[in-house]
Amino acid sequence: MLFQRVACLRNTPLRLLIARRYRRPPRPAARRPNGAGAAAWAVIALLACAALPSVGSSAADRLVVVSSGDAPTYQQALAGIRKLGYPVETLKAGADSDGAVAEAIRRAGRDGAIVTLGAKATALVARAAPTIPVVNCMVIGSDAKGPAGTTVVPLEVPVETTIQWMRRLLPKAQNVGILFDPAQNARRAEDGAAALKRAGYASVLEPVTAPAALPDALMRLTNTVDVLHAIPDTTVFAPEHSRALLLFSFRNRIPLAGPSEGWVKAGALYAVDWDYADLGRYCGSLALRPLPSGRAPSPPPPPLEPARTRVVVNLRAAEQMHINWDPELLRSVDQVFE
To answer: What residues does each domain of the chain span?
Structure first.
């Protein structure tokens, strides 16, 4: 078993492939994770290998995908799963009942596996108590966990990757503010602060226990931090708070490293986000790992390569912040909003 896990880790490419925005020459070596970034993906790969059964098992040959809604990110992830070429049955939390999910799991049989997209889908499938493998994908905070035998792929991009891009896009930044809801993300905020400290940054953690607490938390960060680093948090980075957060950023010239590409379109300086189609591909590939049914998979499961990320920047926000990026740096990102 140990040799199987080591072999799986060896065969997992430890690099982050950034999705392309422009047709351009191969990405510079700086795009590839090294040091802490490679170590982060090594840990993820080792955990995935640890969940695999022993050598001699077959793999899942059909997937049940349960989505939390119709958001573009879920649709992109589903498209990535479909491209794997396996039969896929889709359901949606809110539209399909517990009974419908249980029936879909029954139809999948012992050679099936389940991928959930988002927290609502994760909860719906958990109530069905399936006996086949489950991959909970795109979950955040306290939802980023599962029962024994469940593989969890968090929504947050590895912090080591975001730090690499912070260093490139904001080389003068030293103090990093993190807003978070302790009920969702206390551990994640602490882990992020520890990673920032290892990278030479000072972090300022500001808990936001409820939406009403956000204005005071922002006030305490004024003249204290050089950048606001967002983590996936539904209390802080809810859509209704975008205006307050972006106004704070512009008025105080404190760049906001947003939680997603959508925030960059709205005015955040930059974001390191997933290529959601490739994240779906990765989660689907995890679900297609070996199962103890004895039947050979067809087609064979795809290689388990890490999901790619996308780096997007807002030039108008950079101008407001008096930040100048050289053309070479801009060519290395995936999308530029002007």
So the answer is: 159-273+311-337
CA distance 298 to 320: 54
Question: Domain 159-273+311-337 belongs to what topology?
Answer: Rossmann fold (3.40.50)
Give the residue among 85, 37, 94 at the shortest CA–CA distance from 66: 94
Distances from the Cα of 5 to the Cα of 9, 31, 58, angstroms: 6, 27, 16
Here the tokens at position 142 are 């306290």
Helices (H) and strands (E) in the chain, counts: 13, 14
Question: How would you write the pLDDT of the chain (338 residues) with one tens digit per residue?
Answer: 333 333 343 344 333 333 333 344 444 443 444 444 555 554 444 444 444 433 334 456 789 999 999 999 999 999 999 999 999 999 999 888 889 999 998 888 888 899 999 999 999 998 888 888 899 999 886 555 666 678 899 898 999 999 999 999 999 999 999 999 999 899 999 999 999 999 999 999 999 999 999 999 999 999 999 999 999 999 999 999 999 999 999 999 999 999 999 999 999 999 999 999 999 999 999 988 755 454 545 566 666 788 999 999 999 999 999 999 999 999 999 999 99
Distances (CA, A) of 336 to 68, 121, 179, 243, 316: 29, 33, 26, 21, 10
